[in-house]
Amino acid sequence: MKLAFLSLIGQGLLSLFILPILLTILIIFRRTPKSKRINAQIVVYSTLSFAFAFHIFNLFAGEYVESLNLILGDAIFLLIIFGYIMQRLSVMIRQQIVLYSFILALIFVDLLANNLIVSAALSLFLLAGTWFYYSYLDPSNLKVKYAIGVYSVFKVILLINSFSEGIEVLAICSIIFCIISYTLLLTLFVNQLIGILEGTYETSIKDPLTGLYNRRYFTKCVEQCVERELPSSAIFIDIDNFKILNDTKGHAKGDEVLQKVANILSEQIEGLGVAGRYGGEEFVALIVEPSVDMQDLAESIRKRIKTEASLLLAEGDYSITASIGYSVYQDGWTYSNFIKKADEAMYTAKRVGKDKVVEYGSKEFLDFEESIKRFEKEGEEEGLDDRITVNSI
């Protein structure tokens, strides 16, 4: 039976529009970092190759084979989507066999029937079946459902037009919906590539345990802030006695504390700046909101760590505290000096008793620095007296 719903020009035009989209999908897929799911790559590459052959045939063929215009074209479209799903998810062999068997069975029935009405019915049945099956495999992916839904509209229009005298408007609408469905198919692969690249970038700038920015990225943020001479402050946090915690309670408990402190820090500075893990049990934050009272903010962080980061163990509560130092940016500082000043303030907090907040340049900081200098001077004088005594002997 000769197809009434598409003319030779219409079918060729449809393939002419689809071929560039398929070529774009192939290019994007080749540029996408490959997962370890080799089966998915085989499905995508083989289906795209078959799709190219199918549409090139339609572009130059003088006559049509009904199954090529109906269910076989649908199978190609759906298998490309299946390859995309296999890239995202771990699809078991038996799940793959179910889909392939379903498609092959309908193609076989279609070839045996060699009837336009039967082909159209089988085509819609195939689309409905795979829509529900893909929804089962990847329920959260609405874009897959949209692509199959639009493609189904395209097939319904073709079915309606097959019972008419070949209405030109319906033929044009069918071509438009088919192109839209393939464009949605293209967006699936584009979004997949973007997602992988974004994930790779996130991995490169974030600490995997805490989710905070890593030292390199945080330092870059501070450097940019200093270059623009923005009013800002740096916070340096060190968990007290963390090595003892790791040695006595295990690294799992240590990781738990790190995650708790990271969550507290993230919540406290949300909307105020960026936070990072500087290394080990050290955390840092860059505050770019000039209206923030840094002493209050740092004290709030310290108190929350003391009350919320403690561990509930079988033998009782294990108290967690942190020493915090902060510095307010001053003209002429380099980004490394900016961070170093906050680190020095934190070190002072450690030396004056831990579980404290110290501002760089504050009276407490200067008094401690003065006492250190006095202690060092006394040590030098005692050393000099010892040398004089030795020499005199």
Q: How would you briefly describe this protein structure?
A:
With 393 residues, this protein is of the alpha+beta class. It is built from 14 helices and seven strands.
List the helices and strands and how they pair.
Elements: H1 8-31, H2 38-60, H3 66-69, H4 71-88, H5 93-113, H6 116-137, H7 142-162, H8 168-205, H9 215-227, E1 233-239, H10 242-249, H11 251-269, E2 273-279, E3 282-287, H12 294-308, E4 311-313, E5 316-318, E6 322-328, H13 335-351, E7 357-359, H14 363-392
Parallel strand pairs: 6-7
Antiparallel strand pairs: 1-3, 1-6, 2-3, 4-5
Helix pairs in contact: 1-2, 1-8, 2-4, 4-6, 4-8, 5-6, 6-7, 7-8, 9-13, 10-11, 11-12
Characterise the protein shown here.
- The protein has 14 helices and seven strands.
- By secondary structure, it is of the alpha+beta class.
- It folds into two domains: 8-204, Rhopdopsin 7-helix transmembrane proteins, CATH 1.20.1070; 215-361, Alpha-Beta Plaits (2-Layer Sandwich).
- The chain has a five-stranded mixed sheet with strand order 2-3-1-6-7, with helices on both faces. A two-stranded antiparallel ribbon has the order 4-5.
- α1 runs parallel beside α8 (168-205).
- It starts with 7 loop residues before the first helix and ends with a helix.
